[in-house]
Amino acid sequence: MPFLSDTLARVKPSPTIAVSNLAAELKAQGKDVIGLGAGEPDFDTPQNIKDAAVAAINAGKTKYTAVDGIAELKQAIVAKLKRDNDLDYTTAQVTVGTGGKQILYNALMATLNPGDEVIIPAPYWVSYPDMVLLAGGEPVFVEGPSQTGYKITADQLDAAITPKTKWLIFNSPSNPTGAGYTAAELKALTDVLLKHPHVWVMTDDMYEHLVYDDFEFATPAQVEPQLMDRTLTCNGVSKAYAMTGWRIGYAAGPEDLIKAMRKVQSQSTSNPCSISQWAAVEALNGPQDFLAPNNETFKRRRDLVVSMLNEAEGIDCPTPEGAFYVYPSIHGCIGKTSAAGTKIDTDETFAKALLEESGVAVVFGGAFGLSPAFRVSYATSDENLKEACTRIQDFCAALT
């Protein structure tokens, strides 16, 4: 009898974490490595949020809380969803988890049965398909190529839906591409969903506030209110508020689904960190004035990286609408050989050779379901980005 679960064999470790760990190991060995794999802002958590956490500690708010969040945080989430998204929820329709990942996982565990299908647009965040598999479902991928800005069309979505489809996981702006759907593009997708009343929508709005130029964020239930009763609107404080380590995610949706998710959480982690919850209350209710200057910094970095990568031979890098990633295609590099003799036959061999020969750590596109490409996180200093992009240019110029 095997000791480990058969379910575990269906999933793989996170490639993004693996890249970050490998880059850290090489740095520890004294090698000059620039890591562009981390999916977190390099800004510090705003001071007022840290102060709220300290105040919570000093007030003794260090005990267990309600399983899926304190009332004050749920009230702040309800207010945020009305203020920013014009969505009306009650606190009974809100759940809080240990990061956005747990929120998505709880929902899938609470709803999927063997054979249920979940539509996932590709490129996708690496955890989506593996969470579906862990929950017993089957991921169904719909590719949005670079030619369409890494977005899927209404016709593609319609063709992917079957009687077994239970969820569409929707992420805009996207990790890994930064692609954002306009309200009109989103309306075309929601029109399809209206024709298929058995399909629910799980939105991952984590990068909502990280948008650039004239792009305006929209979320499915906001664009099509008729979908409110089968939409789970998911978000968190990790990215916009530079609170990745605080581990607070949340969602709002139909009360029966929220109750089911609470049951899952009650038998796994129970409540999120009490101190982090009070910090999140301040994040959502407090000043939001730091968002605009942070976004200006990210926009400058995005423009720098897109410009420099498009100067590299064999690389085509679209300009994304949001998040802090770019997803350049390397079609022009496939089939060539690196200066050290590595045959570049996949984006994985490209990324491995780039790290070993040039000291730049990126995540290969195969990890996100669309090749040949790689993901760059520009959530690091301008100096690091300039040096890393210069090395990528030199690496590509040396390919023969």
UniProtKB/TrEMBL annotation:
<dbReference type="Pfam" id="PF00155">
    <property type="entry name" value="Aminotran_1_2"/>
</dbReference>
<comment type="similarity">
    <text>Belongs to the class-I pyridoxal-phosphate-dependent aminotransferase family.</text>
</comment>
<feature type="domain" description="Aminotransferase class I/classII large">
    <location>
        <begin position="31"/>
        <end position="392"/>
    </location>
</feature>
<dbReference type="InterPro" id="IPR015424">
    <property type="entry name" value="PyrdxlP-dep_Trfase"/>
</dbReference>
<keyword id="KW-0663">Pyridoxal phosphate</keyword>
<protein>
    <recommendedName>
        <fullName>Aminotransferase</fullName>
        <ecNumber>2.6.1.-</ecNumber>
    </recommendedName>
</protein>
<keyword id="KW-0808">Transferase</keyword>
<comment type="subunit">
    <text>Homodimer.</text>
</comment>
<dbReference type="GO" id="GO:0004069">
    <property type="term" value="F:L-aspartate:2-oxoglutarate aminotransferase activity"/>
</dbReference>
<dbReference type="InterPro" id="IPR050596">
    <property type="entry name" value="AspAT/PAT-like"/>
</dbReference>
<dbReference type="InterPro" id="IPR004838">
    <property type="entry name" value="NHTrfase_class1_PyrdxlP-BS"/>
</dbReference>
<dbReference type="InterPro" id="IPR004839">
    <property type="entry name" value="Aminotransferase_I/II_large"/>
</dbReference>
<dbReference type="GO" id="GO:0006520">
    <property type="term" value="P:amino acid metabolic process"/>
</dbReference>
<dbReference type="GO" id="GO:0030170">
    <property type="term" value="F:pyridoxal phosphate binding"/>
</dbReference>
<dbReference type="InterPro" id="IPR015422">
    <property type="entry name" value="PyrdxlP-dep_Trfase_small"/>
</dbReference>
<dbReference type="InterPro" id="IPR015421">
    <property type="entry name" value="PyrdxlP-dep_Trfase_major"/>
</dbReference>
<keyword id="KW-0032">Aminotransferase</keyword>
